[in-house]
Amino acid sequence: MTSDSSTSLSQARPRILTGDTPTGRLHLGHWVGSLENRVRLQDEYESFFIIANHHALTTRVEKSREIREDTLGLVIDWLSVGIDPKKSAIFIQSEVPAIAELSWYFAMLVPFNRVMRNPTLKTEIESKGLGDHYSFGFPMYAVGQIADILAFRADLVPVGEDQVPHLELSREAARRFNQLFCGVDSHADDAEHAAKGVFPIPEPKVGRIARLMGIDGAPKMGKSLGNAILLSDTAKQVQKKCNKIFTGRQSATDPGKIEGNPLWQYHDAFNPNADEVADMKAQYQAGTIGDGDCKKRLAQCINEFLEPVRERRIALEADPDHVMDVLRDGTKRANEAAEETLWLAKQAMGYDFFPRELR
Ligand code: ATP
Ligand code: MG
After folding, report:
1. Which of 54, 86, 93, 300 gives 20 to 30 Å between its CA and that of 287?
2. pLDDT at residue 284 above 60?
């Protein structure tokens, strides 16, 4: 779609852009960090949910076919937790060319060293054991992510805490673009950027638990880290993984610690009975309750939460055509929005040589 308008188009509802990389199945960290907010906010916001399959190539380029499988799995994960494709556009990054084109422009607006200093990138290089062998494309994904967000002129980005530094880069790039090409003053506040610039300055929306720990006690549950309870795990698998949670406690009569203990972070997140949790924590600290009982109760709570998710998953897995239809429709809507942004950006830069139609 193209637009001949030279001013920023007013959007009926504020917009959300967020998404996940298809590097495996989603886990409980995704739910508390971002998915829960997506489901809650999809009525209020015009929502675009990206499947970042270009970014998945940064660490698995030789496994592009597996990434394709994970892409379809991600749609099923999203729909099974309650994302409604009638309200929200679910789309594939590689099928929205305006994002790749905008990445070129934003790559010129962020200093190389600024990208490389990004703490999330540094942590990922370490935790994924990339050493100094990562591809040129790996740090490039940080620039790609700027384009993901700004291509939709998003107002809000529901993410886990680890993504906040990435979002800061997007905020800087949006300001720089608006200053350079839209005459927005260098001291302008966010409201002025939204009014005069092509790009509003996106705000992060961190979930109720900013960063869910791994079952191994690592600071982050991650789908590439092998320490996750998956949304697609069976009741038995959940029970097994809960039993394996690393608490650092030697015996059931040791006074247990609460802070930094994944067992209690998970209870806080998934046990709906706050009084019960407070009571169990007190017993745990006093050394009068064993890990086993607390883990068993936790597994029950997680399984109660996952039961309706499992039922929806069974129906979705039986209907692959529906999954493809959701993707096709969402990608079409995403292309309409992103093409419009690209055209506005090109107009602002004087790069609007020929309007185009995307089919
Ligand atoms: P990978 O290990 O491949 O990087 P991931 O588990 O980190 O995968 P992403 O696709 O990178 O998942 O992240 C998708 C979204 O989920 C991001 O907003 C991220 O902040 C959020 N998220 C991921 N893991 C957690 C977690 N443990 N706690 C809170 N939010 C999380
Ligand atoms: Mg990640």
Report:
1. 300
2. yes
Asked whether 225 lines ligand 1 (CB < 6 A), one says: yes
CB 345 within 8 A of CB 198: yes
> For residue range 130-165, what is the model confidence (pLDDT) as tens digits?
888 899 999 999 999 999 999 999 999 999 998 999
Of residues 86 and 5, more confidence is placed in: 86
The average pLDDT across 82-110 equals: 97
Atom of ligand 1 nearest to the CA of 158: 18
Question: Which atom, in ligand 1's list, is nearest to the CA of 27?
Answer: 6
Homologous superfamily (CATH) for 223-315 = Tyrosyl-Transfer RNA Synthetase (1.10.240.10)
Please tell me if the domain spanning 15-211+320-349 has the same topology as the one spanning 223-315.
Answer: no
Q: What's the pLDDT band for 1 if we cut at 50, 70, 90?
A: very low
CB of 218 within 6 A of ligand 1: the answer is no
pLDDT in tens, 223-239: 878 999 999 999 999 99
Q: Is 262 in the pocket of ligand 1 (CB under 6 A)?
A: no
| pLDDT over 80 at 10, yes or no | no
Q: Where are the beta strands (DSSP E) in the chain?
A: 15-20, 46-51, 88-92, 156-159, 203-206
Is the CB–ligand 1 distance for residue 222 below 6 Å? yes
pLDDT higher at 59 or 39: 39
CATH 3.40.50.620 at 15-211+320-349, yes or no: yes
The first and second tokens of residue 334, run together, are: 């995403």
Provide long-range contacts, Cβ within 8 A and 24+ apart, for 268-276: 268/209, 269/28, 269/32, 269/208, 269/209, 269/212, 270/28, 270/298, 270/301, 270/302, 270/305, 271/297, 271/298, 271/301, 272/301
10 Å Cβ neighbour count for 286? Answer: 11
**What is the Å distance from ligand 2's center to 225 Cα?**
10
For the chain, give every domain's residue range. 15-211+320-349, 223-315
Q: Determine the distance from the C-alpha atom of residue 132 to the mean position of all C-alpha atoms in its chain, rounded to a whole number.
A: 26
Q: Is the pLDDT confidence value at 7 over 60?
A: no
